[in-house]
Amino acid sequence: MAKPRSQFSCQSCGYASPKWLGRCPECGGWNTLVEEAVSIPGRSTALAGALTGEAPVSLADVPTDDAPRVKTGIGELDRVLGGGLVPGSLVLLGGDPGIGKSTLLLQALQGIAAPQHGKPRTVLYVSGEESVRQTALRAQRLGARAPSLLVLAETRLERILDEATRLAPVVLAVDSIQTVHSPGLESVPGSLGQVREAAGRLLSFAKERGVATVLVGHVTKEGGLAGPKTLEHVVDAVVHFEGEPGHPCRILRAAKNRFGSTNEVGVFEMHAEGLREVQNPSALFLAERPVGVPGSAVIASVEGSRPLLVEVQALVAAAAGMPRRAALGVDPNRVSLLLAVIERRAGIGMLGQDVFVNVAGGIRLSEPAADLGIVAAAASSATRRPIEGRTICFGEVGLAGEVRAVAQPELRLAEAAKLGFRRCVLPELNRARLIGTFDLELVGVRDVEAALAALLVAPVRR
Ligand SMILES: Nc1ncnc2c1ncn2[C@@H]1O[C@H](COP(=O)(O)OP(=O)(O)O)[C@@H](O)[C@H]1O
Ligand SMILES: [Mg+2]
To answer: Going by fewer Cβ within 10 Å, which terminus of the chain is more open, N or C?
Structure first.
């Protein structure tokens, strides 16, 4: 068979060259040439047909019953995916090396291959990083021993597609996309051209055969290796597996999902026998909270449809030179803004201080309801006045120091009451419009000053 030809094309201007060049002679861009396969018969037309159908149809005539999802049986994972894997979809599972992607994938494939109710299903796990024996050892440790869970140690794209076509599995998993290469291209495995070619061909396979396909991608920081960033536009869903090294807590988060919400998070704990779902993440996040210590505030946050209680910590100390600011788990710009609000609206000096803010447990907060927690933690640390241990808060803070209402207050209050909190400081508008009753003392506030008066207790002696 003749080797498929490849060419190098500039990603900015489209200039094509038969060999690699460091600089594009057309537009002058550096490192913009990427190897691409040319003229794979039928590829683009087959893909377009699979995606769009033959002729335009009336939307009213299209059947809209929910696509049957392939459930993994791991509740936290299924929820993040929007209810399970969609047949024919391409999902990218990203994360740092060693975080537990292969572990999660094997456990999920086991759940699909041997569902609790229903018939066994064929799934194919392609490992480009580990031998069949290594994978078997891991599978044994995880209890992933379903007879219909098949393993293939292979890195050649054509072989992977041949086997997947022959076996017609319900789910195909490729671990990792960076190891897959096509001999048709000269560039090394993991290069941008190879990764894009492999992802493109696997996408066509998934759409044409209706096979849910999962690609694992390492998040690489070196510019030389193609990170999965380049694939995010191609795939239907991107889920990230995150966590702090040395901490058992892992968080699964959808960054993109054509078949579900991107707000959902899944929480897991890593154990020797694999990943365990965390049913009550609030309890986990609050387990090591220092009660009665200045600088610690508990907020009631909502991620997707699920309430999460998390501890926000702040340390405010006199700066020895240029004040330093660092924020982990919250947007540093948001923190700077809130510190300015504290300074101006509550009269607590922040500008000449080092300020460090951290969200305990390795979770990231992105909703404005966390504002009041950041303000409370920073003000508590600066004034050395702790927040009473069974008091919780939430609310968005505006530039004028006003505390603004947020969505879903009922969900937050119910979770706080469930975990034994007694009192909640919340936006007055939320309090006034609450639906239902809660076993909590509710303190509605309109501005930061009132909120801090309600939250901070008398100073502790040093
Ligand atoms: N034999 C083992 N016993 C217990 N834990 C292990 C063992 N081997 C690996 N692990 C755990 O699994 C993690 C690696 O997970 P893995 O799924 O291979 O990550 P990734 O695929 O994201 O690189 C390690 O960080 C380690 O905590
Ligand atoms: Mg792995």
So the answer is: N
What is the distance in A from the centroid of ligand 2 to the CA of 48?
32
**DSSP string of 221-282, one letter each residue:** -SSSS--GGGGTTTSSEEEEEEE-TT--EEEEEEEEETTS-S--EEEEEEETTEEEE-S-HH
228 with 235: CB under 8 angstroms? Answer: no
Cβ(224) – ligand 1 distance below 6 Å = no
Q: Which CATH number covers residue 383? A: 3.30.230.10
Q: Would you state the pLDDT for residue 113? A: 95
Nearest ligand for residue 252 CA: 1
Q: Which atom of ligand 1 is nearest to the CA of 216?
A: 21
CA distance 3 to 9: 19
Evaluate: CB of 240 within 6 angstroms of ligand 1.
no
Q: In this structure, are 308 and 243 located in the same domain? A: no
Domain hosting 151: range is: 41-49+70-279
Does residue 335 contact residue 341 with C-beta atoms inside 8 Å? no
Ligand 1 mutation target, pool 77, 96, 99, 126, most atoms within 8 A of CB: 99
Could you read off the pLDDT of 354-396 as tens digits, one per residue?
999 999 877 888 899 999 999 999 999 999 999 999 999 999 9
The tens digit of pLDDT for each residue in 268-295 reads: 999 999 999 998 888 888 888 888 899 9
Claim to verify: residue 209 and residue 99 sit in the same structural domain: yes
Residues 274 and 393 in one domain: no
Q: What is the pLDDT of residue 462?
A: 54
Atom of ligand 1 nearest to the CA of 273: 4
Residue among 278, 280, 284, 304 nearest 76 (CA): 278
Q: Which residues contact 353 (CB under 8 A, 6 or more apart)?
A: 316, 317, 318, 319, 323, 382
The CATH number of whichever domain residue 91 belongs to comes to 3.40.50.300
CB of 99 closer than 6 angstroms to any ligand 1 atom: yes
Report the pLDDT averaged over residues 296-300.
96
Which residue type, as a one-letter code, is found at position 10?
A: C
Ligand lying nearest the CA atom of residue 100: 1
